[in-house]
Amino acid sequence: MKLFQAVWVATIGVSLLALPAPSSAGFGEPPDSFRGYLLNRADEDYGYLRDPALNTDIWDPVKYLPFNRTGSWYLSLGGEARERYEYFNHPNWGKDPQDSGYLLQRYFLHGDLRMGENLRIFSQFQSSLENGRRGGPRPTDRDELDLHQAFLDLKLDLSDAASLTLRSGRQELAYGSQRLVSVREGPNVRQSFDGFRLMYRTGEFRIDGFAAKPVQTNRYAFDDGTDNAKALWGAYGVLPFPLLPQGNLDVYYMGVYRGKAGFDQGTARETRHSLGARLWRTAAPLDYNFEAIYQWGSFGTGAIQAWTVASDTGYTLSSLPLRPRFGLRADIASGDDAPATHDLETFNPLFPKGAYFSEAGLIGPANFIDLNPCIDLHLADHLALIFDWDFFWRESTHDGLYNNAVALVRSGKTSAARYIGSMSQGQLLWDIDRHLSFVAIYGHFFAGSFLKESGPGEDVDYLTTWLTYKF
Predict the structure, then answer these.
(1) Were 149 and a residue from 27, 82, 124, 422 both cysteine, which residue would form a disulfide, CB within 3.0 to 4.6 Å?
(2) Half-sphere exposure in the Cβ direction for 385 (13 Å, CA)
(3) What are phi and psi of 60, to 5 degrees?
(4) What are the residues facing 327 on neighbouring strands?
(5) Residue-wise pLDDT tens digits, 352-381
(6) What does pTM read for this prediction?
(7) Which H or E run includes 12?
(8) How far apart are CA 123 and CA 110, in angstroms?
(9) What are the phi and psi torsion angles at 209 (to 5°)?
């Protein structure tokens, strides 16, 4: 890790000696004038700024700092600041201490060094802070300062349209709907991995192979090592699906190892394999996202057999005022049917996004049935209001309730009730400009019979709002 830090500092120093930008035509495609930055900042490419005529944004002077007269060697700098407030009334349905609200802060700074078309070094620092939370920070609330990403890309051009890239080092991974592997954007500390990724690209066909271990989330400066008790490996492919208009198909395999995995049944060593497929379309008026996953493997001396099916379908009426989108999400994931045996049927979402059902993170994607109608209203081009109501049941009444980190929060051994409860929610999303965005969310969780019978079953009020600036 110290080597990657030294390289990043060195690239900053070299940038001070950068030559003036050439006046020749640029390469790459400039972004839309209002388009936001990408989820993983490592996916951005500012090579188009070789053309001085495309230098129109206030931050463009630091997005392209050339080293040579042709402009093929250059450094790009960027960052992010997010200021967030959260408030819970009756957190964990009254089981945790009453919380009056707290502040979460997150900062990123990155450098992207491109040495021609085939060699690249990217590094990114993260600082995540928490203030005022009763009971102290949660595991994903505080990480004072650490190296979040630091990797080397070696690219091989196989033809005019095909390339193969080997990425080695610390990096973010996110695939599909992020049901199994995510950057964990909602919580204050994002997830990264130490390992290798091989990426093949040709036209609209993409396939990745990867082998990595998650990075630990520790609270202090430069103490996030590799979590050697866990491992992730697999392959993920994306291709067009011509049988459906504008349809796309993802197919993938993922394997995970956890030296100490905990479920309602108990704790044991876990080796799990996941085979999945996703059919999706984003174009209006009809958008959809269907995904099915089957899992097998071993849990201690027992066998694993688990599954999930998820759907998200929407229809946009562009001719009506506010261009409403009416949507329905329906999901189900298996739970353990016989906890007294060694076999395990609980679905494991591996490394899911922290805000799976909502930013409150009360319920995670294991042993559940979910039905979620929603409506999106577009108040303006970059201002949206979303209302939804989510209903939850346990898939197996013999298994417990898990949170967004797939940690057991309520055992299923004290209640035979299936209904968990429901959560109504309103969200305001405003992209003020390319750099600045604002979000405000309020939700109320109505506790159901299972929560009331298995422990404190208070209703939960949740409020969060944040302001993000990126460059």
Answers:
(1) 124
(2) 5
(3) -55, -35
(4) 314, 374
(5) 987 888 999 999 999 999 999 999 999 999
(6) 0.91
(7) helix 2-15
(8) 6
(9) -120, 140
